[in-house]
Amino acid sequence: MTDIGLTSELTAPLPPSGQIPLIGFGTWQLRGDEARQAVSWALEAGYRHIDTATGYGNEQQVGAALADSGVPRDQVFVTTKLPPDHVGRERRTLRESLDNLGVDYLDLWLIHWPPNGTPGEDSWKVFVEAQGEGLVRNIGVSNYSLDQIDTLTNATGVTPAVNQIKWSPFLFDRSLLDASRKRGVVVEGYSPFRAAKLDHPELTQIAEKYGKTVPQVIMRWHVQRGIVVIPKSAQRERIESNIDIFDFELSADELNAVDHLTEA
């Protein structure tokens, strides 16, 4: 894997011709006015990728922030997710998500978890249909194994464009990343800080070198590795800090060192 020269418009390709911003804003556990305010701050700070889910109970607040932001709809990549217990109600859930978010289409719709531990082929067929109708630009999954992804592909001929999973330098799995990319699946990481050791000496040393925070180093590592990352915060200062990563670049040696923190 090679470094990626970053810009504020950095994206990863989605088949057949889409793009997903490598930096997104997560909204898990954000509710009510807090959710609306946090998303508003994120959009003001330059985030153009907002991640929510039916199960988060905040789609209306996310939609309100989008509407109030003044940012054109086609400039924000909007993701939401189908709860596993909504199998059989996919169409209704999609319509409710669109209404709550105040949008005509989703940029990405994910099956949030494998339904009852199964790949959910029937739900995936509905996802494929919704994509064909233009209600959803891209479709994918979350918390899936490669075998489960392969089952969906074999059942429909359509491979999930994204697999959103817990990811951080301390969960780095090169074989999983390479196998996902071989299938054309973009890895999208959530809980980048919760799943990390923010006081790890290797990270603190790199952060001190560049005058940055450890979370900023983690963010930079994700995007230089081409991994979508969706940090979450309810604090404006942290929301703004997490995306302030375009004034430094990790060297090849530093990237490799962060790759191997699980072995340290």
Automatic annotation (TrEMBL):
Keywords: NADP, Oxidoreductase. Substrate binds at H112. The keyword Plastid does not apply. The active site is at Y56. Residues 23-261 form the NADP-dependent oxidoreductase domain. The record marks K81 as: Lowers pKa of active site Tyr. One of its GO terms (molecular function) is oxidoreductase activity, acting on the CH-OH group of donors, NAD or NADP as acceptor. It comes from the Bacteria. InterPro entries: AKR, Aldo/ket_reductase_CS, NAD(P)_OxRdtase_dom_sf, NADP_OxRdtase_dom. Signal peptide: none annotated. Belongs to the aldo/keto reductase family. This is Diketogulonate reductase-like aldo/keto reductase.
